[in-house]
UniProtKB/TrEMBL annotation:
Membrane-spanning parts: 12-32, 47-69, 81-103, 115-138
The protein, known as: DUF2975 domain-containing protein
Any one Pfam family match given in the protein's UniProt record, by short name: DUF2975
Secreted is among the record's keywords: no
Keywords noted in UniProt: Membrane, Transmembrane, Transmembrane helix
Keyword Membrane: yes
Domain of life: Bacteria
Length: 163
């Protein structure tokens, strides 16, 4: 991975992370202050809490991506330490899907006249779970690469002993 790519990715991560923290702070302020009255059309308090949690899942994934990029730059990504970050990303994606299903459940009573919206939202939740499965497949590829890297190191050590 080139230096420009790493810097660009880190810049994007910093901007998005700062933006999400700002939005979380605004949501939390709206919850605590009670200055934003609900008109009864949507359960805003529950949606705000769910939004704060949903943003938290994205933040966890961003921090883990940052750590993995750091490992790539150091050449240590093909190690067992990388699995903890990949597992955290998978967990964050699954948590995001659960948060989305909660939003779908909160929105469903208002969609009695048009249940297709709820079905579409459920489909989006399944798509989010699909992303978690894709990352799980990539984790398996990482595991294979780590195993091959360990095997190559062992073979190199044996070859060094012979020579």
């Amino acid at each position: 991975m080139g230096k420009l790519t790493v810097r660009a990715l880190r810049a994007v991560l910093v901007v998005v992370l700062a933006g999400t923290v700002f939005v979380q702070a605004l949501m939390l302020w709206a919850l605590i202050s009670g200055n934003d009255p609900e008109d009864g059309s949507l359960p805003l308090t529950q949606l705000r809490v769910i939004t704060i949690l949903g943003i938290g899942t994205a933040q966890v994934a961003m921090v883990c991506v940052w750590r993995l990029v750091t490992m790539v730059r150091r050449g240590t990504v093909f190690s067992h330490a990388a699995f903890r970050y990949v597992d955290a990303i998978i967990g964050a994606i699954v948590a995001a899907a659960l948060v989305w299903f909660a939003v779908t459940a909160l929105n469903a009573p208002g969609q009695r006249d048009d249940p297709g919206v709820t079905l579409i939202m459920g489909g989006v939740g399944l798509a989010i779970l699909g992303v978690a499965l894709i990352v799980l497949v990539l984790r398996t590829l990482l595991a294979q690469a780590v195993a091959r890297d360990v095997e190559a190191a062992e073979m190199q050590a044996e070859l060094d002993e012979v020579i």
